[in-house]
Amino acid sequence: NAGVMQNPRHLVRRRGQEARLRCSPMKGHSHVYWYRQLPEEGLKFMVYLQKENIIDESGMPKERFSAEFPKEGPSILRIQQVVRGDSAAYFCASSPNWRQDGSGNTIYFGEGSWLTVV
Amino acid sequence: TQLLEQSPQFLSIQEGENLTVYCNSSSVFSSLQWYRQEPGEGPVLLVTVVTGGEVKKLKRLTFQFGDARKDSSLHITAAQPGDTGLYLCAGARSSNTGKLIFGQGTTLQVKP
Asked: How far is A90 from chain B (nearest CA, A)?
């Protein structure tokens, strides 16, 4: 099975431009998560999506950030009017439907997209 | 407020030594995961622990989930240079979500 695929791996944007990060989950996985890792900080949850639905966006900044997971195609994290503080590694993760047997909340991460805002 | 406190943050040891990394919280977690992350790459899952008191072994790595499901530890026996990396613990508050709370990470350096 192919793992979680993210692209681009590296992206440079000027302040004020838009950044679009894409994520294709593992085959058979219908849940997608986006996390952000700022320099010298830990991973922070941003948003949890299922196909065509946002389940939990409690970690998403209120402005300029949006995420979608359409019926067809990859999940997209969109950052409008980027600022220097948006420079970070953005990780996508995926999981299958949750099992009821208590097997745990295992999610699998992609290799990340590194955004640099200049 | 950091819900998961990981310690130590940095650890530099000689090859062959043993070490333990701790992940502590005042909150109860449904499950807890340990990941390892290399520079420029995403976190790679090592183990998931679900049951209080559970112990899992992965070669020289031993993972334990506290009885009250508030804390966990990772013990490495006879560390090798290949164990060098960033170790992350992450907890889930409920059983049907991949929304994880991560610790700050432990950077381990094993010198030959």
From this structure: 9
